[in-house]
Amino acid sequence: MVAAPLDPSRYDDPRKLRAMLDRAASLACDHSLKCVVVGLAAAEGDLIFPELVSFIESALRVDDAIFRMTRERAVLVLADADRARAQEIVERLVGDFRERFPSAQEPSLSLGYYEVTHTTRSVTAKEILPAVFRSASSVH
């Protein structure tokens, strides 16, 4: 296993995650637009995952955002999407990545979803992060 050096400058400021979640709550409560928080996780030491996250980030709409927690974890917020639409978007982006950048090693990706609706009472990292990473399911 190859271990990449930990470079803190490659990860986002935690305040960015708070702002992303506040925006999702605002869109849901103030404008009745569903948002989905997606937890993206890879196996420790996965060399492909950071490239996949960069690819996804480059393909996002202006209203969407990604937060890089660690080398193997990221949080994606998709605005104006329900869970089914979010799954379609993520699966399409992962498929595009695999097609454009074939590799002998497939990214070991797990996904978890949390839908923010107008009935969601709060959107906190303490509530959402365990939900999106505990419920993560593998993508093949």
Summarize the structure.
The protein is of the alpha+beta class. The protein has helices spanning 14-31, 49-59, 83-100, 125-134; strands spanning 35-42, 65-70, 73-79, 109-116, 137-138.
Task: Throw out a few tags for this protein.
about 140 residues; alpha+beta; Alpha-Beta Plaits; 5-stranded antiparallel beta sheet; about 40% helix; globular; disordered N terminus
Uncertain runs are: 1-6
Using the coordinates above, name the CATH class.
Alpha Beta
Which topology does CATH recognise?
A: Alpha-Beta Plaits
Query: From the 3D coordinates, which CATH architecture would you assign?
Result: 2-Layer Sandwich
Mean pLDDT reading: 84
H-E order: HEHEEHEHE
Inertia-based shape = globular
Number of domains: 1
* N- and C-termini, Cα separation: 21 Å
* Radius of gyration computed on alpha carbons: 15 Å
Helix/strand-derived category reads alpha+beta
Q: Give the CATH superfamily.
A: Reverse transcriptase/Diguanylate cyclase domain
* Count of helical regions: 4
In total, the number of strands is: 5
Spatial order of the strands in the main sheet?
A: 2-3-1-4-5
